[in-house]
Amino acid sequence: MNELISVIVPVYNVEKYLRKAVQSIQNQSYKNLEIMLINDGSTDSSGDICDELAASDSRIVVIHKKNGGVSTARNEAQKLAKGNYVIYVDSDDYIHEEMIQSLYEQLIAENADVSSCSVMNVYQNSQTPQCSDENLYFVYNQEEFLREYLIGQRVQGTLGNKLIRKEITDQLEFPVGKIYEDAYYHLQLVQVAKKYVVHTKPYYYYYHRNQSLTTNPYHERDLVYLDVYQKFYDLVQQQYPRIINEAFFRLSYAYFYIFDKMILESDFEKINQFKLVRDYLKKNAIQIAKNTIFQKGRRIAALALKINVHLYRQLMLANMEKNKKNHD
């Protein structure tokens, strides 16, 4: 079989990374691709690069649109995609040359709705696989996939490492006007797709750059991260109570993520919603400390926060400095 696969790439001011991302798609061993570049009102040379790349490869389709955000770009492309399957690749990431072939073959072999590989985290001078074992292979139902998604080791929250049947993507939509759109999309996905196949080879290269969403200073809009994982928690509580421990882990992780962003600010105690986030973590500190999905350092930090927020802040800053040295 050699079915058409649509690769959707939203593009916005990524002139430094775009060629590498697109070339990694062009160089795939699986050749029957529709490569959709959606220029979302870029103000740098990204739009011109899109046109230049399209002139050299008939598989590339370029859509120029007014800036509306990554969700509008993906939604528009999703409606126009002609492939039997869809995959989303971010324009500052890149993929292994065997990624699409491997995802397609295992999806067909298992008659699955979604096929996933693992992620390689790429830093300036190092790279680290998200899953420590690169040779795992699983076929999951909805509950099993959701459990692994919430843990985040075998199934990552990145969307670019997943091949999805078009009849599934036709039922889904990215949330316009919200950040953390991949999480909201997964929330819909786990309620529609029935069967998932996963291998843990790190074929999707996620590039951590200094100006990415995850490294930007705290902004009030970041609070939607709590909203989406509260929705995951509510879904699990209602339909999959056997994995409530995993849902609690993910929701608490979201609170830590926001809290850590907040306390990097010098006047963090004056931030709106700071008390709400702090109080959740303090209230649940014992339960977090007992949850073995969390790494030991995070469980200790939860107890430190229960004692004193400034002690927690010192521990976090020391850990950040250690991680920075590891990835420089």
CATH class of the largest domain: Alpha Beta
How widely separated are the two ends? 44 Å
Whole-number total of structural domains? 2
| Average pLDDT taken over every residue | 93
What is the number of helical segments per DSSP (H or I, 4+ residues)? 13
Q: The CATH topology of the largest domain is what?
A: Spore Coat Polysaccharide Biosynthesis Protein SpsA, Chain A
Provide the low-confidence segments as ranges: none
What does it look like?
Helix content is 46%, strand content 18%. The protein contains 13 helices and ten strands. It has helices at residues 18-26, 46-55, 70-80, 99-110, 142-151, 166-169, 181-192, 224-239, 244-262, 274-283, 285-290, 296-307, 309-327, and strands spanning 5-11, 33-40, 60-65, 85-88, 94-95, 114-122, 127-129, 137-140, 162-165, 196-207. Strands 1, 2, 3, 4, 5, 6, 7, 8, 9 and 10 form a ten-stranded mixed beta sheet that branches. α10 crosses α12 and α12 packs antiparallel against α13. The longest helix is centred in the last third of the chain and has 19 residues, at 244-262.
SSE diagram, text form:
Elements: E1 5-11, H1 18-26, E2 33-40, H2 46-55, E3 60-65, H3 70-80, E4 85-88, E5 94-95, H4 99-110, E6 114-122, E7 127-129, E8 137-140, H5 142-151, E9 162-165, H6 166-169, H7 181-192, E10 196-207, H8 224-239, H9 244-262, H10 274-283, H11 285-290, H12 296-307, H13 309-327
Parallel strand pairs: 1-2, 1-4, 2-3, 6-10
Antiparallel strand pairs: 4-9, 5-10, 6-7, 6-9, 8-10
